[in-house]
């Protein structure tokens, strides 16, 4: 077997290098025990053009056996096109897709050991639940008794035992999803593809099903690639997340990695919300660096060096709202704070988001967990200070 | 004690469901139910040399009102093998023509539904375009094509493929060909409407689960287009059974179809009661498939 490689791209372009660096640190995945080191699928420099428009641009990825991998991106980011190439509905213009070491780029969908759960579920309306699940098995010409057994097993897996004789239109959205999942797992594929798995469900059901689907996938032990535009869904379900934008992969890493150490400004803004301050590096040493930020009106100090080239001094400093602190008294020291007034408060139940207008006119979001029912909190138009720990901020480039 | 007249009038004339239904109901009563009743009445009377040429059912005497209902026309239809043969011939020809329409129309509708969007309108127009010329002229044109010194035979003779012309005109083949040609759009349009609605992701799902294109067609596309197939077949079969013009122009002595027999009874024999009975039986025969179709449709809707 080949050495599990993250990226086979020899390009020195920064956008291809960044994910690689992130990848190294992503060993702290929450379900890493299930994920094996062995490579299941390798995507090598795959590109896809539709009438001159580049939908997928030189993407390279390695999927490990047993992991749940999420392609996260907005609409038009190329994530769906990439998924459709893996399923075989689209042929890559360039590059290769290797499944267990074999190039399947030109293999038609019906010959791939890959099954997909469609966003619309694509259940056959004229067949019962059992017939839907049995469809793929019948194509393999399995004996009737085995098909019956496997269908029963799948129905049990998704807790739909009593619904074998129903037609899809007699089921609720959540039940349809279970059937679609059972159908795509029935053939025991080496790779399962999920296209916006929760896209057709309402919010409440979505959170329920996210955990249940992950539980089912773990029980079966199938490797899974999912496509979603919902970062919460990607972070809940996946071991690793790839952020896609404009057809290329911006960053690959565990949910913690992409949230806490975003590769660039785009990732930081796409995954969660963030406060950004433009600045210029004035001091950069091994254990700390100082950034002059007119937007903050004060210098920013960060607890690690960032080794910048001399001609790239302009950077962005990103601080997450939950790591931004709010106080009524002026913080000590000369770094990492600003004075301002509370412009708006969004009470979200579990937490409240404060919108603070700094003296420099910058709007900063601060989220506070509502840990007690009633407490002394700043109110509208109060004079407050925002500040953060020097370990909380991240330096980013465009 | 009651509301003022203006209010009562308002209530009465307020737009309600009843009024919406009233218009088509009136139409159907005037132009369908009433003629139907008249034809039914004539079919139960007896032929007479009179104007109109049948006996009255209800006779009002000095002290009695007598109702004379005669089933002799229906019994006569069953006793004469000509009529049974005509019904059977009509059903046979209509069935073969419907089947041919389906076999030709389905691939056409399928291709149209799969064609790029900007081509679909053009193809749809091409299917409907022939109907813009007179039906009669188009059937006449077939006479020119099929006759012994028509287009096909002359071409084949000129090519030396045959020594003497093939007899196509005035055969059942010509009748079926004419019906298929005339009614093909009625098969294509409902099928096309059905096939364009087919969700492409179902075909992808089938392919993803290991099914090749032809199997996907048999297992997914075909069963899901059942509604279109039934609708199209009804639209061809029902008018084809009663077709008169095409067998009259293209058919021969061996073509016995009920439409032609009906015409002869009515205009040549002037036997209105028998002709009416023929029409009633034909209607009953056609009601069976229509009722079946209706039941199928309502079951589909319920599901």
Automatic annotation (TrEMBL), chain B:
Regions that span the bilayer: 20-44, 56-76, 82-105, 117-133, 173-193, 272-293
Topology versus the membrane: Multi-pass membrane protein
Domain ABC transmembrane type-1: 87-293
Family annotation (SUPFAM superfamilies): MetI-like
Highest taxon, organism lineage: Bacteria
Keyword terms, alphabetized: Cell membrane, Membrane, Transmembrane, Transmembrane helix, Transport
Compartments in which it is found: Cell membrane
Main location: membrane
Family: Belongs to the binding-protein-dependent transport system permease family. CysTW subfamily.
Protein name: ABC transporter permease subunit
Species lineage: Bacteria, Pseudomonadati, Pseudomonadota, Gammaproteobacteria, Oceanospirillales
